[in-house]
Design brief:
By secondary structure, this protein is of the alpha+beta class. It has helices at about 25-35, 50-65, 110-130, 145-155; strands at about 10-15, 15-20, 70-80, 80-90, 95-105, 135-140, 160-170, 170-180. The protein has a domain at about 10-140: 3-Layer(aba) Sandwich (Aminopeptidase).
Length: about 180
Protein backbone atom coordinates (compact mmCIF):
# COMPACT_ATOMS: atom_id res chain seq x y z
CA UNK A 1 0.00 0.00 0.00
CA UNK A 2 1.22 3.49 -0.85
CA UNK A 3 1.45 5.93 2.03
CA UNK A 4 1.11 9.70 2.12
CA UNK A 5 4.10 11.38 3.75
CA UNK A 6 1.80 14.14 5.03
CA UNK A 7 -0.43 11.71 7.00
CA UNK A 8 0.38 9.85 10.20
CA UNK A 9 -2.58 7.49 9.72
CA UNK A 10 -3.14 5.97 6.29
CA UNK A 11 -6.35 4.00 6.86
CA UNK A 12 -9.55 5.50 8.23
CA UNK A 13 -12.47 3.28 9.25
CA UNK A 14 -16.14 3.86 9.96
CA UNK A 15 -18.39 0.84 10.48
CA UNK A 16 -17.78 -1.39 7.44
CA UNK A 17 -16.37 1.49 5.35
CA UNK A 18 -12.81 2.68 5.00
CA UNK A 19 -10.65 4.98 2.94
CA UNK A 20 -7.07 4.12 2.06
CA UNK A 21 -4.51 5.95 -0.10
CA UNK A 22 -5.69 5.54 -3.67
CA UNK A 23 -4.79 2.11 -4.98
CA UNK A 24 -3.31 1.54 -8.43
CA UNK A 25 -5.48 -1.56 -8.82
CA UNK A 26 -8.64 0.61 -8.68
CA UNK A 27 -7.63 2.91 -11.52
CA UNK A 28 -9.79 1.36 -14.25
CA UNK A 29 -12.90 1.14 -12.07
CA UNK A 30 -12.36 4.81 -11.23
CA UNK A 31 -11.90 5.62 -14.92
CA UNK A 32 -15.15 3.84 -15.80
CA UNK A 33 -17.13 5.62 -13.06
CA UNK A 34 -15.72 8.98 -14.12
CA UNK A 35 -16.66 8.31 -17.74
CA UNK A 36 -20.17 7.19 -16.75
CA UNK A 37 -20.68 10.27 -14.57
CA UNK A 38 -18.89 12.82 -16.72
CA UNK A 39 -21.99 15.06 -16.64
CA UNK A 40 -21.26 16.29 -13.10
CA UNK A 41 -17.45 16.30 -13.23
CA UNK A 42 -14.96 18.88 -14.45
CA UNK A 43 -13.88 16.49 -17.18
CA UNK A 44 -14.51 17.43 -20.78
CA UNK A 45 -14.09 14.05 -22.49
CA UNK A 46 -14.04 10.35 -21.61
CA UNK A 47 -10.76 9.08 -20.21
CA UNK A 48 -8.81 6.36 -21.97
CA UNK A 49 -6.88 3.54 -20.32
CA UNK A 50 -3.63 5.10 -21.52
CA UNK A 51 -4.53 8.49 -20.03
CA UNK A 52 -5.51 6.86 -16.75
CA UNK A 53 -2.26 4.89 -16.57
CA UNK A 54 -0.26 8.06 -17.31
CA UNK A 55 -2.16 10.00 -14.63
CA UNK A 56 -1.45 7.38 -11.99
CA UNK A 57 2.20 7.01 -12.99
CA UNK A 58 3.01 10.71 -13.45
CA UNK A 59 0.69 12.55 -11.05
CA UNK A 60 -0.71 10.24 -8.39
CA UNK A 61 2.58 8.48 -7.64
CA UNK A 62 4.23 11.83 -6.82
CA UNK A 63 1.51 12.85 -4.32
CA UNK A 64 2.72 10.26 -1.81
CA UNK A 65 6.15 11.89 -1.59
CA UNK A 66 5.14 15.50 -0.91
CA UNK A 67 4.94 17.31 2.41
CA UNK A 68 2.15 19.55 1.06
CA UNK A 69 0.48 17.84 -1.92
CA UNK A 70 -2.23 19.76 -3.76
CA UNK A 71 -4.51 16.75 -3.44
CA UNK A 72 -4.89 13.56 -1.42
CA UNK A 73 -6.83 10.80 -3.16
CA UNK A 74 -8.36 7.72 -1.55
CA UNK A 75 -10.03 4.49 -2.57
CA UNK A 76 -13.37 4.21 -0.75
CA UNK A 77 -13.97 0.65 0.43
CA UNK A 78 -16.96 -1.19 1.82
CA UNK A 79 -16.14 -4.56 3.35
CA UNK A 80 -12.73 -4.28 1.69
CA UNK A 81 -14.10 -3.76 -1.84
CA UNK A 82 -13.58 -0.53 -3.73
CA UNK A 83 -16.96 1.13 -4.31
CA UNK A 84 -15.79 4.69 -4.94
CA UNK A 85 -12.98 7.16 -4.66
CA UNK A 86 -12.41 10.74 -3.71
CA UNK A 87 -10.23 13.00 -1.73
CA UNK A 88 -9.23 16.47 -0.78
CA UNK A 89 -8.38 18.46 -3.89
CA UNK A 90 -7.25 22.04 -4.52
CA UNK A 91 -5.71 21.97 -1.05
CA UNK A 92 -4.75 25.46 0.08
CA UNK A 93 -2.12 24.94 2.78
CA UNK A 94 -1.86 28.65 3.60
CA UNK A 95 -5.60 29.23 4.15
CA UNK A 96 -6.11 25.66 5.45
CA UNK A 97 -8.99 24.67 3.16
CA UNK A 98 -9.73 22.08 0.49
CA UNK A 99 -12.43 20.91 -1.85
CA UNK A 100 -14.05 17.54 -1.15
CA UNK A 101 -14.21 15.25 -4.15
CA UNK A 102 -16.15 11.97 -4.28
CA UNK A 103 -17.77 9.61 -6.74
CA UNK A 104 -19.10 6.13 -6.18
CA UNK A 105 -19.73 3.11 -8.34
CA UNK A 106 -22.47 4.28 -10.70
CA UNK A 107 -24.56 1.17 -9.97
CA UNK A 108 -24.82 2.21 -6.30
CA UNK A 109 -26.05 5.76 -6.87
CA UNK A 110 -29.77 4.96 -7.07
CA UNK A 111 -30.00 2.89 -3.88
CA UNK A 112 -27.02 3.90 -1.71
CA UNK A 113 -26.28 7.53 -2.58
CA UNK A 114 -27.04 8.99 0.87
CA UNK A 115 -25.51 6.11 2.83
CA UNK A 116 -22.24 6.14 0.87
CA UNK A 117 -21.89 9.93 0.81
CA UNK A 118 -22.48 10.19 4.57
CA UNK A 119 -19.96 7.45 5.35
CA UNK A 120 -17.41 8.99 3.00
CA UNK A 121 -17.84 12.44 4.56
CA UNK A 122 -17.30 11.06 8.07
CA UNK A 123 -14.03 9.52 6.88
CA UNK A 124 -12.72 12.47 4.86
CA UNK A 125 -13.50 14.81 7.77
CA UNK A 126 -11.15 12.77 9.95
CA UNK A 127 -8.39 13.20 7.37
CA UNK A 128 -9.01 16.92 6.89
CA UNK A 129 -9.76 18.06 10.41
CA UNK A 130 -8.07 15.55 12.74
CA UNK A 131 -4.98 14.66 10.69
CA UNK A 132 -4.29 17.80 8.68
CA UNK A 133 -5.86 20.46 10.90
CA UNK A 134 -7.66 22.12 8.00
CA UNK A 135 -10.14 24.87 8.84
CA UNK A 136 -12.69 24.52 6.03
CA UNK A 137 -13.91 22.00 3.47
CA UNK A 138 -16.22 22.76 0.59
CA UNK A 139 -18.10 20.88 -2.09
CA UNK A 140 -18.21 22.54 -5.52
CA UNK A 141 -21.13 21.07 -7.46
CA UNK A 142 -22.74 21.74 -10.80
CA UNK A 143 -26.37 22.46 -9.95
CA UNK A 144 -27.52 19.15 -11.43
CA UNK A 145 -28.01 16.90 -8.37
CA UNK A 146 -30.20 18.63 -5.77
CA UNK A 147 -30.43 15.39 -3.74
CA UNK A 148 -26.74 15.93 -2.87
CA UNK A 149 -27.52 19.13 -0.96
CA UNK A 150 -29.72 17.36 1.59
CA UNK A 151 -26.97 14.83 2.30
CA UNK A 152 -24.46 17.64 2.76
CA UNK A 153 -26.78 19.53 5.11
CA UNK A 154 -27.40 16.36 7.14
CA UNK A 155 -23.61 16.04 7.45
CA UNK A 156 -23.18 19.55 8.88
CA UNK A 157 -22.51 21.52 5.69
CA UNK A 158 -24.06 24.92 5.06
CA UNK A 159 -24.98 26.62 1.80
CA UNK A 160 -22.06 28.93 1.10
CA UNK A 161 -22.47 30.31 -2.41
CA UNK A 162 -24.21 30.09 -5.76
CA UNK A 163 -22.15 31.03 -8.79
CA UNK A 164 -24.72 32.07 -11.39
CA UNK A 165 -24.31 30.73 -14.93
CA UNK A 166 -20.80 29.62 -14.02
CA UNK A 167 -20.43 26.55 -16.27
CA UNK A 168 -21.46 25.70 -19.79
CA UNK A 169 -23.24 22.34 -19.81
CA UNK A 170 -25.43 20.70 -22.43
CA UNK A 171 -25.58 23.85 -24.58
CA UNK A 172 -26.57 26.15 -21.72
CA UNK A 173 -25.07 27.90 -18.74
CA UNK A 174 -25.73 26.41 -15.31
CA UNK A 175 -25.06 27.47 -11.76
CA UNK A 176 -22.45 26.05 -9.44
CA UNK A 177 -23.46 25.53 -5.82
CA UNK A 178 -20.92 25.52 -3.00
CA UNK A 179 -21.55 23.90 0.38
CA UNK A 180 -19.02 24.21 3.17
CA UNK A 181 -18.21 22.94 6.65
CA UNK A 182 -15.88 24.47 9.23
CA UNK A 183 -13.63 22.70 11.68
CA UNK A 184 -15.23 24.07 14.84
Amino acid sequence: MNTYRVLQNQVFNYENYSIVPIRYEDRFSIMNWRNEQIYHLRQNKPLTAEEQDNYFKNVVSNLFLLDEPNQLLFSFLKDGNCIGYGGLVHINWIDRNAEVSFIMDTKLEASYFRENWQAYLKLIHRVAFSELGLNKLYVYAFDLRPHLYKVLEQSGYFFDARLKNHCYYNNKFIDVVIYSILNL
